[in-house]
Every structure is written in C-alpha cells, then in structure tokens.
Amino acid sequence: MASMGLHEGRSDAELLKLAMAGEESAFVALYERLKSGIFRYAYYMTSSVTAAEEVTQEVFMSLLEKGSTYREERGDVAAFVFGIARNFVRRVRRRERIYWPLPEDDAVERLAASLILEPQSLQRNLARGEAVEQVRAAIASLPDHYAQVVILCDFCELSYADAAVRLACPVGTVRSRLNRAHNLLARKLKPMKSTETLPASGTEGCLI
Amino acid sequence: MNCQEFHSYFEERRERVSRNDSAEFAEHLAICGDCSRWLASQNRVRTSLDLLRQSAPGIPATLDAAVLASYRKRMGEPEATVSVGIWRMIFPASLRLGLAVAAMLLIAAVIFALRRPAVTTNNKPQVQLQPQVTTPVVDAKAPVPNHQNSVVVRKAHASTRGAPTTDKSVGTIASDIRGNSSPDGFRSLMYCDELSCGGAMDVVRIQLQPSEPGLLAAAQQSSNVVSADVLVGADGIARGIRIVR
After folding, report:
1. Which residue of A39, A68, A154 is in closest CB contact with B59?
2. How many CB pairs under 8 A join A and B?
3. Could you tell me which residues are beta bridge partners of residue B206?
C-alpha cells in the first residue's frame, strides 16, 4: 500500500470522494491515514484484536456506503469515521457481552518464547500481565463516556480539541471527564508493585 | 500556587508530572499533603495507562489485505451499489415508510373486499331457505287445516320458484285484494294494503284432502277431488284462497 505520496496534498474529504468513485489509490491513502486510530480505539474498547480487525474492516466498507451522506461543514472525515466506528464497537460489545474472553491466539506462544529467551523474566511477566489486566478491567468498568475520553486522549493520543470534535462536546467537557475518569481509575487501581522492583530471580524461588 | 492552580497545571500536562517540574510546583507540594497524595495517585494511574499502551498489539498484517480485498469486491459490483443509491435518492426514508404503509392498507382493503361477497353468498341461501309462514285457511267456518295441507301450499309455492309441477300454476292476476276485498271469490288470508300486496300475483292450483272437515260435502259433489286456487304474492306468501269445485 504505497500510494500515500500520490495523494499527499489531498484532504480526507477529497480522498473519500475519489475512493467512492472507484480510485483504489485514494482509498488506500485514506485507509493509511485513518486505520491506526480506528484500530487502536476498537482494540481498547473491545480488548480483542479480532474484534478490532473486524470493526476496522467494517468501518471502511461502511464508509464507502455512507460516504455520500458526509457533509464537510459538519466536521472532518476522521470524526465521521469515528462515529461509524463507535457504532460498530457498540454492536460488537453488545454481541460479545455474553462470552468470556479467551487470550489472544498467539499470547501463549509469546509467553513461551519470552521464557525460553529470558527464563528469569517469568515472575516479572506474570506481574506485568496481571497489572495490564487490572488496568483493562478498571477502564472497562468505567461509564461509557469516561472510557471513551480515556481511550481517545490517553491511548489514541488525540488532543483535547480533537477528542471534543470526535465526541461532539466542548473541550471543557472532555477535560473534566478525563479528570474524573482518572480519579475513578485511581480509586479502582490498587497500588501496584512496580515491575522494576520485582526480583529477577527466575523460577527457582517458587520450587522451594 | 494554590490547590486549584496545582490541579489545573497537572491537567494541562499530558505526561507524568514530577516535583522537579517547577519550583512553584515543588513549593506547593512541600506544604500541601493532600495535593502530594493526589499527585502520587494520578502518577500511578498514568503509569498504569502507559503499561496498557505498551502491551497493545500492532495492526495485523492481514488486515490491510482484507480491507483492500473488500474494497475491490465492492467496486466490482457497481450496479447494485448504484441502483440502491438511486432508489434511496428517489425515495427518501419517510417516503419509503409512507409507501409501505399505503401498500399494506391497500392489501388489507383488497383482502376485505374479496372476503365480503363470499360472506353474503353464504348468507343468501339461509335467507331464502327461511320457511314462509303461511296459514292455508280454506274456509272461515272450517277448522284450521292440518299440517299436511300447509305442506301442499308450500310445495305449490316452490313450484313458482322454478321447479315445475304438474297442474299447480294457473295464471297471474293483478293484485286488487287490498283491504280484505277478495277478487273473483278469493278469500283473503291476510290483511292487504299498498305495501304488503303490491304488484302481480300468481294463482296456484292445489289439491286438498277430501277427508278434511268442511270439505267432505264438496268432495262428494265433485267425485272426491277438491281443488283450490291460492293467490301467491311475488314474495311467495299466500294472500288468498278459493275452493274450486
């Protein structure tokens, strides 16, 4: 997908029009610009790579379908796409709510490989994995409008202004929501052991 | 720096904040225990979020290929897309809903109209089959005729409806038996006026049982056969009767 240079000076709206008209290189350029944000947003909202992949793919196909309803004066294409992604994420979360999440397909292999390369890192990896799960669970337990702000500002690294555009609310609201969300997270997250301070003694300590 | 300014300063900074960021900042933290604890908890949250961010997987390589394949597939079917787009342009959502409702109403009306004649057809025979209440009084002095006689009258009436019998139908006369005045020797069987006895009436000849009381003398005079003409209206109800010797 090396068609970025071809459409470098074009806006997202122009690329969308060209993509809908059938110009593949314009579609690829638009996809390259937007895919990272959408994938990350979907991943953090669903905690699943498979679901994030599904959402990203559906969003771009839906963009081609609904692209004719896009109005430039109402916001940029990224915000329009984010709106579509948000709806798909909601749908996926509703669908997946009844299932217990399994670890990602390659999680076990990655753990095994890291143990072979660094046997002493088992305890550290376990603690780290536990901490990650704890943070993920804490974010998932937040009310939706707080979780959205945390994911957009802290994980997708959008500015307050961009997040405000995506969520269709004032910048001050984004800031206060983020502040409240961080306070809630601070209460939910127990003081975790720093992964740096854990002893790197390997597995022998557990065998006694 | 007061506590509010301290919080605002922290919110503005997206990255981890330390005591050494500014002298003013450090000075406030030195005197305010609440803000010091709050900063520690917030930094802990930011560390945790960093941990989660670092553990996030990259975009799978298969995704690009899948999206591109979907795009090509979609663009390979332009007709369906275009036709759907045109239909949506011509018929906006509200109009489509209205058309759907109108179509449903039309279908309901057609079903109702088709079912209605069937119901009336079923009812018709019931109306026609209702027995006519006729009282074949033969003579005012004579007692009321028995059941057999009334059956004869009904048979004669049926003959006028289409099934021809041997000697029953005699002719048709204009109605003038209104107000109980009997034409040509007919004895009125019911009260007649403009409404009940309007139009032409049939004269039906029937045979009566000679054994009936009051008819015995007439039977003896006419070799055991007693006939009577019954005046029947267009509605099938007998209006008058006369004995034919």
Report:
1. A39
2. 94
3. B228
